[in-house]
Amino acid sequence: MEDGNGLKPMDAEQLREQAHKMVDFIADYYKTIENFPVLSQVQPGYLGKLLPDSAPTYPESLDHVLKDVQEKILPGVTHWQSPNYFAYFPSNSSIAGFLGEMLSAGLNIVGFSWITSPAATELETIVLDWLAKALQLPHDFFSTGKGGGVIQGTASEAVLVVLLAARDKILRRVGRSSLPKLVTYASDQTHSALQKACQIGGLNPELCRLLKTDSSTNFALSPDVLSEAISNDIASGLIPFFLCANVGTTSSTAVDPLPALAKVTRANKIWFHVDAAYAGSACICPEYRHFIDGVDEVDSFNMNAHKWFLTNFDCSLLWVKDRTALIDSLSTNPEFLKNKASQGNLVIDYKDWQIPLGRRFRSLKLWMVLRLYGLEGLQTHIRNHIAMAAYFEELVGQDTRFKLAAPRTFSLVCFRLLPPPNSEDNGNKLNHDLLDSVNATGSIFITHTVLAGEFILRFAVGAPLTEVRHVNVAWQILQEKATALLVSS
């Protein structure tokens, strides 16, 4: 039995001592993060062979546990904060985000209604208003308007809650028996979270229309294609009710034309949701704000502060134009939660704006990020990543063996290795092999997509520690692996 047996559930002096050790461990991790293979190299089931098959009967020391983290857990971690991480989209952590997360964990409140911790509710309202102002969102999206902002866990939760609100709003008008006739629209570039939301919402999966996009619109949704689909569905006796548009799609950061789409949704009384999970952060920079022009006409807007806004996961920001639609769909009022403030309609109870009852004090970390970096610091952070992506785009453009596969809008570059002239599959296997050989080095991590039938490599710049030197090394690895593959083919 080790000396950890004296650890109490919560004791201020023990917390001070143990937490110092943990902070040192995490700081050392960040100091040495470049030494790890970015993509974990372990095989499925590796950890079961390293850990015992039952929990310890007696307490162990923190030092012993941290040794196991170092030797057994970290090899099975894919290092999202590594400066050589260029996969998916970024998931930023920062000192400010970490400190806010630590404070939230320390207070450990469950803030489902105002009375359970007034500061948790009121701070959330204030920071969401701060950001609505920074993004120049319409007045209805502020807490002083008819809607307001709320922190969800992820963009998947955000689209689900607004889909449910839109569903219930239309069913109140046309009757609940019309549920099987409701039609949802989005482009074929939309995140699979929408389809999942339709499944959970009891909607007919065949009526989730993913409308075709192509390179002529840079993979953005065409308002004419949307209009035609809606007309056809109405003619068939169906009921269009929801559009999810994108500002920065997952595959290529395509931006759907919000003002033109809004004309179509307005004419057909359709709920218009905008998913700007990744690119919404960039819109605090004046030179990128135009990408959300037309947001005045939408019913809901979502961005992930935990992607590119230096706020530790999870922290997805959702604004709605009409909060009553959300509350009507999601609220419950059991006896054990009744209290004067709620009954008097004097406060917001965020439990009625989300799926679960319980919620963490997530606004603390967003508040700390906004205060410790300021809007100017956050703008600099975003511009820096975009500049590095533009530099990578130049490097790709200078090598005639490669081609750019979609325009670079933010900090994602889509590109591919050109196949030899008589390639049977248009170089799809070649690019798949390039992806695998690059990731197998452990030195960098990139991911792929498919655009217009072509296997495309994605290079997303966004980790907080990434510098130009990391971009240069990544390009060097890509070139070397491309040379080796072209020689062997």
Summarize the structure.
By secondary structure, this protein is α/β, with parallel strands linked by helices. It has 14 helices and 11 strands.
CATH class division of the largest domain: Alpha Beta
Q: What is the end-to-end distance?
A: 60 Å
Shape: globular
Helicity, as a percent range: 40-55%
Number of helices: 14
Secondary-structure element series: HHHHEHEHEHEHEEHEHHHEEHEEH
Instruction: Report on the biggest sheet.
Output: 7 strands, mixed
Keywords: Decarboxylase, Lyase, Pyridoxal phosphate
Organism: Cicer arietinum
Modified residues (N6-(pyridoxal phosphate)lysine): 307
Protein name: Tyrosine decarboxylase 1 isoform X1
Describe this structure in words.
There is one protein chain. This protein is an alpha/beta fold and 489 residues long. The chain has two domains: 110-360, Aspartate Aminotransferase, domain 2, CATH 3.40.640.10; 371-488, Aspartate Aminotransferase, domain 1 (Alpha-Beta Complex), CATH 3.90.1150.10. Helices cover 41% and strands 12% of the residues. It is built from 14 helices and eleven strands. The strands form two sheets. A seven-stranded mixed β-sheet has the order 1-7-6-5-4-2-3, with helices on both faces. A hairpin with a 7-residue loop joins strand 8 (402-404) and strand 9 (412-417). Helix 5 (155-174) crosses helix 10 (323-330), helix 12 (363-398) crosses helix 14 (468-488) and helix 13 crosses helix 14 (468-488). The longest helix has 36 residues, at 363-398. The protein starts with 11 loop residues before the first helix and ends with a helix. 42% of the residues are buried.
